[in-house]
Amino acid sequence: MEIKWEVVAETFGITPATIIAGRLKAEGLPVRVWQEGAGQALGLTVGALGTGYVAVPEECVEQALSLLDEEVEIDPEDWQEESDYD
């Protein structure tokens, strides 16, 4: 049976797309990330060739969009660790 993949995010370049894919993979979703070959070879991050794409199987679209819509709470104390180099 062929899996139908649906794009759930378009980004400026492959790097943000890869970060988004990592978030979805952490939740156990299968993910594909790509950018047009010419755009990646030329290092483009804008325009049609610079767009990064994140896709999930058709049956995972709702869950993926729900996860991407969630706000992530960041505790400022997590960023105020003491340095080991003092």
Please give a structural write-up.
The chain has 3 helices and 3 strands; from the N terminus they run βαβαβα. With 86 residues, it is α+β, with helices and mostly antiparallel strands. The protein has a domain at 13-70.
Indicate the multimeric state: single chain
Which bin fits the share of residues in helices? 25-40%
Q: Give Rg in angstroms.
A: 16 Å
* DSSP helical segment count: 3
Which geometry do the CA atoms define? flat
Quote the average pLDDT.
Answer: 83
Rounded to the nearest angstrom, the distance between the terminal CA atoms is 58 Å
**Major sheet: arrangement of strands:** 1-3-2
Element-level helix/strand string: EHEHEH
Q: What proportion of the residues form beta strands (DSSP E)?
A: 15-25%
Low-pLDDT residue intervals, each spanning 5 or more residues: none
- Helix/sheet category: alpha+beta
Question: How are the elements arranged and paired?
Answer:
Blueprint: E1 5-12, H1 14-26, E2 32-35, H2 37-42, E3 51-57, H3 61-69
Antiparallel strand pairs: 1-3, 2-3
Summarize the structure.
The chain has a three-stranded antiparallel β-sheet.
Please supply descriptive tags for the structure shown above.
flat, alpha+beta, three-stranded antiparallel sheet, single chain, 3 strands, 86 residues
